[in-house]
Recover the amino acids of this structure.
């Protein structure tokens, strides 16, 4: 297993190239970004060169916002073309920048649609998006989120439902993103859920619960959890996506030591 750092939350006030440099200096070799046309406004080839120069690999981007305000989301079929247009743009950027994966958020619930209509829309949208991903050689990470605190109204809020969608679509290019912070709030029993769905899990996120600060804070023993996930055979990236509660460089160095058990 490798560790990664989300540089949309850590070093967030720094220019994007400086975020990569500081992450590498702190000891990270994998970093994550969100929207390819927001924090970074240059071209994909330039970003690839800067990442290489900084000594980091960018592992993921994000297609659209959780609520669907960017990209239209998947829950509403009326927004399908808007979603696919953004998915094409993001995956083209990823392909040219050498970024292997992008995150899929479903969008919020649509009041005028039934649960079945929303689920049918998500499945069909995932199938179309997965076909694009297969053509571009990009992996999609489908992410369930918490609704009580961070994403009220978000449609996909459990790992069981997310894993079921991944299995239904049935492509190696669609995997589950298991965010331990969100799933501790929504489900708990993290290790059992992870073991149940490891066959479709492609990526992890974590943060302290409650507060979404350093992973060593709060009710989840991440040092134990990471060790158990490694025992299960996971060899991908375990991403630290949290809001530092102290000076950022001190926070990420301290967190890296904590996760590694030093």
């Amino acid at each position: 297993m490798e560790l990664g750092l989300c540089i949309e939350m850590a070093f967030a006030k720094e220019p994007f190239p400086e975020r990569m440099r500081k992450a590498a200096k702190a000891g990270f070799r994998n970093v994550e970004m969100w929207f390819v046309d927001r924090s970074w406004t240059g071209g994909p080839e330039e970003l690839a060169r800067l990442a290489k120069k900084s000594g980091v690999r960018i592992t993921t981007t994000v297609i659209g916002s959780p609520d669907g305000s960017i990209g239209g989301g998947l829950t509403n079929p009326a927004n399908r073309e808007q979603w696919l247009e953004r998915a094409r743009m993001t995956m083209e950027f990823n392909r040219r920048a050498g970024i292997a994966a992008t995150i899929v958020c479903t969008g919020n619930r649509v009041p005028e649609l039934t649960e079945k209509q929303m689920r049918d829309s998500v499945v069909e949208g995932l199938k179309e998006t997965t076909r694009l991903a297969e053509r571009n050689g990009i992996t999609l990470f489908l992410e369930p989120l918490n609704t009580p605190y961070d994403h009220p109204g978000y449609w996909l809020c459990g790992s069981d439902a997310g894993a079921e969608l991944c299995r239904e679509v049935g492509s190696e290019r669609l995997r589950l993103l298991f965010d331990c912070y969100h799933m501790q709030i929504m489900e708990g029993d993290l290790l059992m859920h992870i073991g149940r769905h490891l066959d479709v899990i492609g990526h992890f996120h974590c943060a302290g619960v409650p507060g979404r600060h350093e992973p060593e804070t709060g009710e989840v023993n991440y040092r134990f959890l990471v060790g158990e996930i490694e025992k299960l055979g996971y060899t991908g990236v375990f991403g630290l996506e949290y809001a530092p509660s102290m000076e950022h460089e001190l926070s990420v160095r301290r967190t890296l030591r904590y996760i590694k058990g030093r």
